[in-house]
Amino acid sequence: MAENEGLQEKFEVTRLIPSSRGIDHSECFYFVLDPEHDPDAAAALAFYAHAVRARGNTVLADDIGRKLLELSLKHHQPAVNEAERRLDNDN
Question: b/e for 28-41, b at 16 or more Cβ within 10 A?
Fold first, then answer.
């Protein structure tokens, strides 16, 4: 597959835990990221962690941060470290 093909349907996502708010997610758009192999995906997740932390969801932000750190150490991904450094400097 070429590198710049845009969005494609490559994955089938199955919800494992029912919505606690009774929301029907059957027609939702889901977007799969691969931070293990894509430094831009890692940076996007670091930004997402920053956003949810700003809204008070520190548990999710910490979980994402730990996973990104694991990936960074495993693959020596400077993009993860750089994205987290930039977000930390924004606080």
Answer: eeeeeeebeeebeb
**pTM to 2 decimal places:** 0.70
Residue 42 carries which side chain, given as an amino acid letter? A
Q: Which residue type sits at 48?
A: Y
Radius of gyration of the chain (CA): 15
Give the residue among 82, 89, 51 at the shortest CA–CA distance from 68. 82
Residue-range domain boundaries for the chain: 39-90
The strand ranges marked E within the chain are none
The Cα–Cα gap between 17 and 53 comes to: 22
Q: pLDDT tens digits, residue range 7-51?
A: 888 888 888 888 778 888 888 888 899 988 888 898 899 999 999
